[in-house]
Amino acid sequence: MLGACGDDGNGPTPIVQAPQIACPADVTISQVPGLSLTVTYPAPTVTGGAAPTSVTCTPASGASFPLGDTMVACVARDAQAREASCSFKVSVKGFTLGAMKFQAVGDSLTAGENGLPSFVDLPNAYPTKLQALLTARYHTQTITVLNRGVSGQRVETLEDLLPGMLNADRPDAVLLLTGYNNLTTPCSAGSFATIACSDAIDFTAVGVRDCIRRIKESPVGVKFIFVSTLTPPGPTGSKRIDANAIVDVNRRIRVHIGAEGATLVETHPLFQGREAELVSPDGLHLLPAGYQTVAEAFAFAIRTTIPQTPALGYR
Questions:
Q1: 3-class SS of residue 147
Q2: 112 Rama sector, left if φ>0, alpha if ψ -120 to 50, beta otherwise
Q3: pLDDT at 9 (0 to 100)
Q4: In DSSP terms, which residues pair with 136 in a beta bridge?
Q5: What is the per-residue pLDDT for 314?
Q6: How many CA atoms within 13 Å lie on the side-chain side of 289?
C-alpha cells in the first residue's frame, strides 16, 4: 500500500532515549582483619542510550578498598556521547581495640634518638610510628601513644618514676623498652666476660622485673603490659653494647616477663642480620627503619593480645 501524498516511506529517525543508570545498593563488609580488602560489587544497571553504551566505575569492582567509607562513582556513556551518573558507598569495617591509651616508657630508644649526629627525631620515634599503625587499623577510635622516653635514663630511675608517671597519664597499657644505659659502660664491645658486665646484666634484668611489678601494683589499674627485648648493636660505632651481653640480658628478661604475666615483644630477632640497615652508625640508637621495625613488633603484640570487637561505624 502506497503511503500518503508526499510520504516516501522513510519517516523521521526515532529518538533514542538518553542513557539512564542505577547503581547497586551500598556495600558493607565487616570484621576485616587487615587495613584494606579487595571488594567485588554488582555492576550498575543501564537502560536506554544509543548502542554501544559503556559503563565505568571508580574505584573499579575488584579494587582494594581501605578501611572506612569509599564513594564509588559510576558513569554510563552512549554512542552519542550522552552520559548518566550515579554513586554508592562501600564501607569496609574493621575492629575496635580494648585499649585506647598507651604509655611508652624507657630511655633514648623510646624518645627516638637517632644517633650520629645525636638528636631526638620525634616523628620517627617508635611510639609515633606505633600510633600511626594503630590509628590506621582502629580508626573508629582515638588511640593515643604517649612517648615518655628520657635520654640517658637508667632502669632504676624509671622504676622510681613509674608510680608518678602512671598516676599522671592513667594509661590502659604500658610499653616498656629499657636497660641500655645500664649496659653501655660495663658491657661495651668486648667486655662481656668481665665481672662488671655480669653484674650489670643481673641488675638490668632484675630492674626490668621490678618495673613490671611497679606497673602491676599501680592503683591506676593498667590492663596490659608489653615488654620488649633489647635490640642488638650495630656492626660499628662507639656506643656499641657487647652483642653477647644483649643476648644474655634478653634471656633473663624473657624469664621475668613470663613469671610476671607481661606480654613479650620480640624485637631482637627482627634485627638480626639487618643491623647495618636498622641501627645508627653510633652502634646503639636506631635509624628510622629500625624504629619502624620496633613499632611493628609492638603493633603485632598488641593486636594479638588485646581483645578486639567488630567496629560498628565510622566517624
A1: strand
A2: left
A3: 56
A4: none
A5: 46
A6: 9
Tell me how far apart the alpha carbons of residues 195 and 198 are, in angstroms, rounded to a whole number: 5
Per this entry, what is the length of the chain? 315
d(CA 205, CA 211): 10
pLDDT at 43: 97
Domains in the chain, CATH or no CATH each:
20-93 (2.60.40), 97-310 (3.40.50.1110)
pLDDT in tens, 86-102: 999 999 988 889 999 99
Burial profile 63-99: b = 16 or more Cβ within 10 angstroms, e = fewer: bebbbbebebebbbbbeeebebebebebbbbbbbbeb
Residue 206, Cβ density class (10 Å: 0-12 exposed, 13-18 middle, ≥19 buried): middle
Q: Is the peptide bond before 171 cis (omega within 30 degrees of 0)?
A: no
Q: State the pairing for strand pair 263-265/308-310.
A: unpaired
Q: Could you write out the DSSP letters of every residue in 167-220?
A: HHH--SEEEEE--HHHHTTTTBTT-TTSHHHHHHHHHHHHHHHHHHHHHHH-TT
Select from 23, 34, 31, 33 the least CA-distant residue to 71: 23
- What are 167's three cell numbers? 598516676
